[in-house]
Amino acid sequence: MATKLPLNHASLYSTLLLILLTLSESQTILKKFSIKEATLHDLQLAFKQKQLTYRQLVEFYLQEISRLNPNLNAVIEVNPDALYQADKADYERMAKGAPASLSVLHGITVLLKDKIGTKDMLNTTAGSFALLGSVVPRDSRVVAKLRNASAIILGKASLNEWASFRSFNAPAGWRAIGGQGKNPYVLSATPCGSSSGSAISVAANLVAVSLGTETDGSILCPASFNSVVGIKPAVGLTSRGGVIPVTPRQDTIGPICRAVSDAVYALDAIVGFDYKDQATKEASKYIPRGGYKQFLKTYGLIGKRLGIVRNPLFTTGSGSLQIQAFESHFQTLRNKGAVFINNLEIAHIDIILNFTLSGEAIPSVAEFKLALNSDLKDLVVSPVRALADVIAFNRTFSDLEMIEEFPEDIFLAAEATNGIGDNEKAALLNLSRLSRDGFEKLLWEKKLDALVTPGFDVASVLAIGGFPGINVPAGYDKKGVPFGITFSGLKGSEPKLIEIAYGFEQATKVRKPPTFQPF
């Protein structure tokens, strides 16, 4: 394996500078075709019509990263092999001569949340200096699938350090490596997390496709605040093999894109069984023959039964721009054939939405320690081999002021656990009961195809049961900060959710490019 590059601001921009020095005739062709806001269908058509090459696509994104990333902090590291991969894809397209035989993701750039492992020149750090220079034993399973589809790994996207599982005090989008990620619509607004960089990058047109991970809201929330589409698949639909864990009980990997169709194409590429992740054995039975792209139907809303839980998922303040927008969206959905069942209730919803009261925290910290220790032991090279080593590393090498500002309260709570004992088992039983008697019972009894909720507020409801959700852009507040709408359902409901989300997107066309407002 090639020697890893040191990862810091100097190396990132020196790498970019070296790559940018190779750029040549891109600008002439790019005047004929605009990459900004282009869908995968647009890009593939441009490739087919020879308006664009894969190299020019990569060059464009590298230029945009060089221009915008110093303010956005969305990309931790770019892949020094990206242009080589692009040239290889260009050669393959020319050699095959039959574009229909190529994957939709052939030559398409992808940024990975920096906890998704790659066996290449890129680091996998979870945003922490403790993992800088570590070497993973193999590509993560989702990355292997992307490579099989001939996608180009452009680099690693920023995230909340350790996927928000280090400290309750750290702001959304913050990590030790690279600092604070910024919302491209309103720079002072939250980008949310933990897949913040994945959402920022797609929203700001630094890449076409990104992958994020979600344990509890980490795809749905940044998708909502950055006006992009995020698919949180049911747990096990995508493999967690080679991905730095929080808790395997709730962790899932999903795509973040600017359009529902793009996210679905990416989802098709990464789902499937992995013998290293037993959760995929059960979940893979839900994958439809022919994949998920067949559910991109403009008439998919007809007859869909959609439930609304207003309390406490919808605020009732009169004159609220968001509420007005949602009421308008509901009418649009009705006009497209959807049926609404209004004013529903999820049993014990107030408890479910509280990380502590629900008991979600108790097993999560214990599972985190077990899963992380196992993951670190599997690394070929690493400065740390267990959670205790990470804590010690931070105490030794971190700035004291930073430790005081962002104390390692979650780390310390996890390190104090000793496996899955009676308290953890009792909490797990309670979570199962809350999910069974709440979300699951409601959808079964009311025969709902999906629940419709604002933003990401339903995230904890989906997290404890491992259920899927799709967030789609729904509007912008008075300051220009985006907000989304989430469609969620039971395990195996991804086809229906895609029909609903795609139908909503096509009927509303809400998304607009970012404005980079300072306030």
UniProtKB/TrEMBL annotation:
The keyword Signal applies. Keywords: Signal. The keyword Iron-sulfur does not apply. Residues 57-454 form the Amidase domain. InterPro entries: Amidase_dom, AS_sf. Residues 1-26 form the signal peptide. This is Amidase domain-containing protein. It comes from Rhamnella rubrinervis.
